[in-house]
């Protein structure tokens, strides 16, 4: 029987998907508790957002599926691009320069397994 994935997702997070994916790459496939500890000590701002989503996925697994926290493994960790916020800034000769503010949807899925 296939292992059931328990997911959590944060949408419209104000960080670019590239920056978030750099941190997600570090925890993908690791034990959930070890990944959480790693995120707490990383200096990157993306780690705070990812830590929050991972805590939510762990809580979903414990509460909804009655899974033990110690046995959880991070099966999927993805940052997809969200809505692009377009802002404008004054440019030379009365023109306007576009500023792109990237957002991302961070999705983490955990499953029961040993790693």
UniProtKB/TrEMBL annotation:
Pfam families according to UniProt: Ribosomal_L22
CC per GO annotation: cytosolic large ribosomal subunit
GO molecular function: rRNA binding; structural constituent of ribosome
Keywords of this entry: Ribonucleoprotein, Ribosomal protein, RNA-binding, rRNA-binding
InterPro entries: Ribosomal_uL22, Ribosomal_uL22_bac/chlpt-type, Ribosomal_uL22_bac/org-type, Ribosomal_uL22_sf
Domain of life assignment: Bacteria
One GO term of the biological process aspect: translation
Complexes and interactors: Part of the 50S ribosomal subunit.
HAMAP family according to UniProt: Ribosomal_uL22_B
Purpose: This protein binds specifically to 23S rRNA; its binding is stimulated by other ribosomal proteins, e.g., L4, L17, and L20. It is important during the early stages of 50S assembly. It makes multiple contacts with different domains of the 23S rRNA in the assembled 50S subunit and ribosome.
Family to which the UniProt record says this protein belongs: Belongs to the universal ribosomal protein uL22 family.
Protein name: Large ribosomal subunit protein uL22
UniProt gene name: rplV
């Amino acid at each position: 029987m296939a292992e059931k994935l328990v997911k959590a997702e944060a949408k419209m997070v104000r960080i670019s998907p590239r920056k978030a994916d750099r941190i997600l790459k570090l925890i993908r496939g690791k034990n959930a508790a070890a990944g959480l500890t790693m995120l707490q000590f990383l200096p990157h701002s993306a780690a705070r957002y990812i830590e929050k989503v991972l805590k939510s996925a762990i809580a979903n697994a414990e509460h909804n599926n009655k899974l033990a926290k110690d046995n959880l493994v991070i099966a999927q960790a993805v940052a997809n691009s969200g809505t692009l916020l377009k802002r404008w800034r004054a440019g030379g000769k009365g023109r306007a320069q576009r500023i792109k503010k990237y957002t991302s949807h961070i999705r983490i899925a955990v499953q029961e397994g040993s790693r």
